[in-house]
From TrEMBL:
The protein, known as: DUF5612 domain-containing protein
Positions in coiled-coil regions: none
InterPro entries reported for this sequence: CheY-like_superfamily, DUF5612, UCP006363_ACT
Gene3D superfamilies attached to this UniProt entry: 3.30.70.260, Hypothetical protein af1403, domain 2
UniProt-listed Pfam families: DUF5612
Domain DUF5612: 77-214
């Protein structure tokens, strides 16, 4: 079970270290954290934790720290926003993938799932590689769709890293024989690629893309 809290603090030196240090000493696992500075005097720390024995007790303890203004309990982001698909590319390809993905996600979300669709308008090998390398820093990402008509072999390394380290599925619209073996799925029709990306991460879909070996 994952618990989430948001801590409002004064923007003081070492406050982040003290709060996270206390949580760590309790033996609770950090699932996700986000720290943002609202003003010169105020900052917010959002924390998702696992293995918490008594979340209300922890909140009470954190409220006792110097500089802490408030601590409130939240629902984890996975429960609120659910899974996330990021579509990378430009032009008509992206718009068609988005059309398929949003249409299919709507069908699943009506039934109680929570799947969101993001787009990142990028082109060029270097820019796409940089974006893929940063994927691990983003929360809730379950699938990436590379909506480019041509994908270079140079991104094979970063694709393998994402799949191995973050368990994120990667769908492509195209690719040569060497690249296809590293993608989870290749769907040449962009609308269908969006549909398949949603089905691949849906908890209510029976689709197992690991069993699909050919280009669709």
């Amino acid at each position: 079970m994952v618990d989430a809290i948001e801590i409002t603090t004064k923007n003081k030196v070492h406050i982040l270290e003290k709060l996270l240090g206390h949580i760590s000493k309790k033996g609770y696992g950090l699932v996700y954290t986000q720290f943002r500075v609202e003003s010169e005097n105020t900052a917010f720390l959002y924390v998702e934790l696992e293995n918490v024995v008594d979340i209300d007790c922890l909140i009470s303890e954190l409220r006792g720290f110097s500089g802490v203004m408030e601590v409130v309990k939240f629902f984890p982001t996975d429960e609120i926003w659910g899974k996330r698909i990021i579509i990378i590319g430009t032009g008509i390809q992206v718009s068609q993938v988005v059309l398929g993905a949003i249409t299919e996600a709507d069908r699943h979300n009506i039934r109680g799932e929570r799947i969101s669709i993001d787009t990142l308008p990028l082109t060029g090998e270097k820019n796409i590689i940089e974006a893929l390398e940063a994927i691990g820093y983003l929360p809730r990402v379950s699938c990436i769709v590379l909506a480019e008509s041509e994908i270079e072999d140079s991104i094979i390394g970063v694709i393998d890293e994402i799949k191995n380290n973050y368990n994120i599925k990667i769908v492509g619209l195209n690719g040569n024989d060497s690249l296809i073996n590293h993608l989870d799925l290749v769907v040449t029709d962009p609308v269908q690629a969006g549909v398949m990306a949603v089905m691949a991460i849906s908890e209510t879909s029976n689709l197992d893309i690991s069993r699909i070996k050919e280009v669709l």
